[in-house]
């Protein structure tokens, strides 16, 4: 859609002592006091490029009360108040460096004129500002914008530029994005301060100590040899660990052998099932103990396996052996096979 042919006029106050630069368009979305808008400057550099292309090598004029727009209706001359020598994108919008005529400077110093009013084309569908066409000195402002660049304004611009440099942001950064970056920086600084305080406590310095003092304390700690009362060499640690593991394994085997021997002595486990008992006791000592406590005495009776089948060649189990096999969850064949192997 082509830009609107009816220019929107907005005013910015010019201080009594005009500075080198004046703020002519804000960044982001803005609206006029008369209700027109909203207008949008989302890409200040693009607006500047289009404005310079429109000027086609000439300088954009600053007149009085937009008389240039109706020059054909004036009987006399339509003098210029100044000329825009340069345009610049800054965090808060577009700024211009005007060259005032002697008459305009005198009028500004005498407060005969107080405001600057830019005239720009914009897209009627989106409100996007397309290009700046000219400007005027006026006393009928339509927008409440930042005062044009006086000595105070120049200082503010320098402050904004330094802030952008500090935050590693381009000069065209919108105020909202700059505020978000500042909030993030403040949050990061708060988190860093808390972490620094915690580190200071750990290394034994005052929580409010400066970072340089904390770094010096850490470096001093790193330079000291390890305390033998708190640390041992790694080879010695590995040797002790292996010895401890071997001792634990030996102790475990001795405990298993003792459990199985006691069970066999009590007649609860026949010699033919010693290997089974050792495996069971090694995997689950407490479970094996419970089994032994509830198992019947099956050895040393008149119906023992040796008296029923000399040589271990019996084809069937004795009643006592059947009881043991059932308690152990073994089939008759498995029990007989273990008995023959024994």
Write the layout of secondary structure elements.
Blueprint: E1 8-9, E2 12-13, E3 22-26, E4 28-30, E5 39-41, H1 44-55, E6 60-64, E7 80-90, E8 93-100, H2 102-109, E9 115-122, E10 129-138, H3 151-167, H4 175-203, H5 211-223, H6 234-265, H7 274-283, H8 285-294, H9 305-308, H10 319-328, H11 332-341
Parallel strand pairs: 6-10
Antiparallel strand pairs: 1-9, 2-9, 3-8, 4-5, 6-7, 7-8, 9-10
Tell me the span between the first and last alpha carbons: 102 Å
Report on the biggest sheet. 8 strands, mixed
Strand content: 15-25%
What share of the residues lie within helices? 40-55%
Total count of helical runs of at least 4 residues: 11
- pLDDT average, as an integer? 78
The Rg value, from CA coordinates, equals 48 Å
Q: What is the N-to-C order of secondary-structure elements (H for helix, E for strand)?
A: EEEEEHEEEHEEHHHHHHHHH
């Amino acid at each position: 859609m082509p830009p609107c042919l009816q220019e929107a006029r907005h005013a910015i106050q010019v201080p009594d002592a005009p500075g080198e630069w004046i703020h002519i368009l804000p960044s982001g979305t803005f609206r006029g006091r008369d209700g027109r808008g909203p207008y949008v400057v989302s890409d200040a550099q693009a607006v500047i490029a289009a404005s310079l292309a429109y000027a086609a090598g000439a300088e954009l004029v600053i007149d009085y009360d937009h008389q240039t727009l109706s020059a054909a209706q004036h009987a006399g001359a339509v003098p210029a108040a100044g000329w825009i020598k340069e345009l610049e994108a800054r965090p808060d919008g577009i700024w211009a460096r005007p060259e005032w005529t002697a008459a305009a400077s005198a009028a500004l110093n005498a407060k005969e004129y107080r405001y600057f009013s830019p005239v720009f084309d914009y897209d009627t569908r989106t409100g996007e500002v397309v290009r700046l066409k000219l400007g005027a000195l006026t006393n009928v402002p339509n927008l409440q914008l930042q005062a044009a660049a006086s000595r105070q304004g120049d200082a503010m611009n320098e402050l904004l530029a330094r802030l952008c440099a500090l935050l590693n942001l381009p000069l065209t950064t919108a105020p909202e994005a700059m505020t978000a970056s500042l909030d993030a920086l403040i949050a990061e600084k708060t988190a860093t301060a808390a972490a620094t305080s915690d580190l200071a406590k750990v290394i034994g310095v005052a929580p409010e100590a400066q970072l340089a003092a904390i770094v010096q304390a850490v470096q001093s700690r790193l330079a000291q040899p390890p305390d033998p009362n708190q640390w041992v060499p790694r080879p010695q640690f590995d040797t002790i660990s292996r010895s401890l593991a071997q001792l634990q394994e030996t102790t475990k085997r001795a405990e298993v052998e003792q459990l199985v021997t006691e069970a066999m002595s009590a007649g609860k486990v026949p010699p033919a099932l010693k290997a089974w008992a050792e495996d069971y006791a090694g995997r689950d000592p407490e479970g094996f103990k419970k089994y032994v406590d509830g198992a019947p005495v099956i050895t040393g009776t008149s119906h023992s396996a040796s008296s029923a089948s000399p040589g271990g060649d019996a084809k069937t189990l004795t009643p006592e052996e059947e009881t043991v096999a059932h308690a152990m969850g073994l089939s008759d064949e498995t029990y007989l096979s273990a008995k023959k192997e024994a």
